[in-house]
Design brief:
Oligomer: single chain
Shape: globular
Helix content: 25-40%
Radius of gyration: 21 Å
Strand order of the largest sheet: 1-7-6-5-4-2-3
Number of helices: 14
CATH superfamily of the largest domain: Type I PLP-dependent aspartate aminotransferase-like (Major domain)
Order of helices and strands: HHEHEHEHEHEHEEHHHEHEHEEHEH
Structural class: alpha/beta
Strand content: 15-25%
CATH topology of the largest domain: Aspartate Aminotransferase, domain 2
């Protein structure tokens, strides 16, 4: 597993240069809704805050560099970014979505876009290329996938699917939130669009909501740029500044998340109370070999099955002292989530049952605390059941 040696340098410097007026080393917060024009219709650089902002420009330049993209577009949330991709779809089109997908993504597709006569087919993408090819229809326009998936941490072969989407003339969009740009590069594997919930690892401190799209296809970029401008779901300047600040430590944070998650997962594998421990860095993970080839590291999410009924599972979560029971992930503090009743409650019951998103499933977002404290927290929570 390798990553360009300059990733840590990119995190610190990409998109950021000293302020031209005062040489401030940090990008200023341009808290302005509009810009003065010397002549009607001829702005110097920007005309209106929704259309563009210098702080947002710097953030987008940084995000593009992290994913090896030509361009990036930032949005007010991850779902706003996904919604923008949805605007590329034509009525009557067909979309393939990985079956194990974030609940909010599936809800957006099912509840908002399906009413425009767009068919969303949720399928298992851990199949051979020949099997996956059979999913395509004449009107298939988009393939949407996550890898690792949320919450079961499946690893999907992005390069293999990209080969098929290129043959079929279909857009491939990859949600790279769980891996982060530090541990996976979907564009290099053949994806057309990479999406991130900036709320998670890139923000990294549980204090910002944001989303982004990174891409190098200029035709797609111009369409998505128009959606960003015309629909207006953009970040506030302060949020852009805070995200730029967070990116500076992204590479360092991700290494600690991964170190802790691997040690944590190995420790939980030794505890008989857990019937299954899912983490791509474990040799026991079904797609461990693919993860080693496709990823540069395994990130900080660990999912487990606690061999108990829901009442006991709930008591276990409430017994935790260091882990906090909360939605979201990717912050410096460790969180535990119950997908069935929290992040994936909107997934149709039949699909939840099929996937195994059941009452025994828990998702840990392993933070940057001392990993021994995290392991001991789980041990004491089990002992006090």
């Amino acid at each position: 597993m390798s990553k360009p040696n300059n990733m840590s340098t990119l995190c610190v410097h990409a998109g950021v240069s000293p302020d031209a007026t005062h040489q401030a080393i940090m990008t200023p917060i341009f808290q302005s809704s509009t810009y003065v024009q010397d002549f009607p219709g001829q702005p110097k650089t920007h005309d209106y805050g929704r259309a563009g902002n210098p702080t947002r420009d710097a953030l987008e330049t940084s995000l593009a560099a992290l994913e090896g993209a030509d361009k990036a577009l930032s949005f007010a949330s991850g779902l706003a970014a996904i919604q923008a991709v949805g605007q590329l779809l034509e009525p009557g089109s067909h979309v393939l979505v990985c079956d194990d997908v974030y609940g909010g993504t599936g809800r957006l597709f099912r509840e908002f876009y399906a009413k425009y006569d767009i068919e969303f087919e949720f399928v298992d993408m851990n199949v051979s290329s020949a099997e996956f090819k059979q999913y395509f229809k004449e009107n298939t326009q988009l393939v949407w996938l996550e890898s690792p998936t949320n919450p079961l941490l499946k690893i999907i072969d992005i390069a293999a699917i990209a080969t098929l989407t290129k043959q079929q003339g279909v857009i491939l969009a990859v949600d790279n939130t769980f891996a982060s740009p530090i541990f996976q590069s979907p564009l290099a594997l053949g994806a057309d669009i990479v999406m991130h919930s900036l709320t998670k690892y890139i923000g990294g401190h549980s204090d910002i909501i944001g989303g982004a799209l990174m891409l190098s296809n200029d035709q797609l970029y111009q369409k998505l740029r128009f959606v960003q401008f015309a629909a207006g779901a953009v970040n506030a300047p302060l949020d852009c500044f805070l995200l730029l600040r967070s990116i500076k430590t992204l590479a360092i944070r991700m290494q600690v998340h991964q170190h802790n998650a691997l040690a944590f997962a190995k420790a939980l594998e030794q505890l008989p109370e857990f019937s299954e421990v899912l983490y791509p860095g474990l040799a026991s993970h079904p797609q461990h070999q693919l993860a080693k080839v496709q990823m540069h590291g395994f990130s900080g999410i660990v999912s487990v099955r606690l061999n108990a009924d829901f009442a006991t599972v709930a008591a276990f979560m409430q017994n935790l002292k260091v882990f906090s029971l909360a939605e979201s992930l990717g912050g410096v503090e460790s969180l535990i989530n119950h997908p069935e009743t929290m992040t994936h409650a909107s997934v149709p019951l039949a699909l939840r049952k099929k996937l195994g998103i059941s009452s025994d499933l828990l998702r840990f977002s392993v933070g940057i605390e001392d990993v021994q404290d995290l392991i001991e927290d789980v041990q004491q929570a089990l002992q006090n059941l």
